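= Tokenised fold =
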Amino acid sequence: MEAIKNSCNYYFYETSYRLGVTKLYEWAAKLGLTTKTNIELPGETTSFVGNQDMLYDPNFAANIQYTAKPLLAAKAIRERIYEISDARGMDLSEEVVEAAVTSLLKISVSYSSKNEWLAPIREVLQYDLGIPSNYITNNFLVNEFVTYLQDLFWTPNETIMLGIGQSITQVTPIAVARYVSAIANGGTVYDAQIVDKIIAADGTVVLEKQPVVANQIDTDPYYFELIHDGMEDVTSMEDGGTAGKYFQNTEYAIAAKTGTSQRTELDVENNAWIVGYAPADNPQIVVVVYIQNGYAGAQASPALIEVIEAYLDGLKGKENTAVGEEYSIAN
């Protein structure tokens, strides 16, 4: 609860390290973060959560991986091979170079330790490409090629970063909304739906959709209660929550979690995330706000608050209201 309230990275670093990437990924999948939400819109992107296969999967070409890292590594390796070839007056065919690039990339996921890479890298350079052993040694080529590959090797550091939603993880706002909904409702992961029903002009119900359960998490409700309490503390000025000052005068009790996605030094500001649900004691709505270069998660709070209040105010206004036109499509 304290870690959620204070957005304490250290707590989640330690928790992630103890769990390990396999269990982290397993829980991400259970909570709907690795599959489509099946929302009725074309072209939905599938979120992905970091692990070795997401970082580099040797079963696929470098240009069809989840991230650009394998493509960049392949480019660097290829360019360096051609530099060596030109410097030594070698005549390497494109097929030989591409085969060597593929072999070198696969080394990054074929061993449990980087120390085991040295011999196979030397073998590819010497036997597949025909680079003399003394040239490899004198130019420190093995160590150089290790640097090209190291970004493709999943390490405990990546697992630690994964635990706070970073590393190579990329999730869509709608997937996060489904995830937060499951947290709010105690473990039921639903598919996302826009359409409730479709009514023809003559009043006939053409289609009436029912909620679709994608997964049900069976665990002690106590764990969800702790998360709920922590998220309520995030918005509490009295408890010193990370976004408390923005929620002092809200009409409804809102539970939330802030998130700041760091960008490279080339970007203007970090990205801002905040997720929330309300009313905290009887959730009716989940809202996810993502603002590119929004500086910090807490600063996205006003958008979250406005949407929640507009929606819950609207629910109040609809109570005991009859449909005024015979064939209205108000639903």
